[in-house]
Amino acid sequence: MDKDKLQEIYLKEEYYWRTEPNELSRKVLKYIPEDQRKERKLVDIGAGEGRDSVFFAKEGFEVLAVDISPAGLMKAEKLASKEKVAIKTLDADINDLIMPKEVDIIYSIGTLQYLHPQNRNRQFQHLKEKTRDGGLHILFAFIEHPEVEIAPDWGKNEYLYGREELQSYDKEWDILDTYEYIFDCSSSSIPHRHAARVIIAKYGSVTPISLIKKFFFVISLSIFSKT
Ligand SMILES: C[S@@+](CC[C@H](N)C(=O)[O-])C[C@H]1O[C@@H](n2cnc3c(N)ncnc32)[C@H](O)[C@@H]1O
């Protein structure tokens, strides 16, 4: 859907994407035990009206909700205050988003198609550099699929991913889970289908190279302490 149309929708009182969290947001909790959630920094890219951002804040995460629509972010703040939690918001375009600081989790659902193909390598690289050691990427992208037609409300600034594309950006990370699926949708009140890919990847601190580096670091420390 075009971002102007979404902005118009977000100016209405009701929550277009509803206020219950998306199923994927609950999956994040599986990877981060309850006692480790407090103060973990999570960025929700394309947060819309904030249903998932608010869910994460209620679970104890420190949340930054990013979206190109100020009206969506205002509703996200309103929902947060209704639920008595705090979230930060940032009005930014994913195509030139500069992350204000390092985070533990990058979460994005329903928005990565607005990242123009020519900007993808650069922006995914930036997101990786801004993810802390041991951090997670939980990403959902609409993909090309031979059995699924382009959605009737697909906007001119939206670009599908290739079927193997999303996995390629985090390929040197630990892929904890990834799957492709087709689902029904009725956005814009026209029933249609989408194909999508989900990836949950971890910036693994324990790789063979990191172990070798750690080994030499410890050896040099012990030599240094004896001199
Ligand atoms: C399908 S909605 C998903 C909203 C939210 N993630 C959810 O699941 O409720 C896509 C969101 O992407 C936002 N968006 C569109 N273009 C964007 C861009 N270039 N940069 C950042 N966000 C964008 C829209 O404003 C919209 O809120």
From TrEMBL:
UniProt entry keywords in alphabetical sequence: Transferase
Protein name (record): Tellurite resistance methyltransferase TehB-like domain-containing protein
Entry keyword Transferase: yes
GO molecular function: transferase activity
Domain Tellurite resistance methyltransferase TehB-like: 38-180
Cross-referenced CDD domains: AdoMet_MTases (cd02440)
Pfam families according to UniProt: TehB (PF03848)
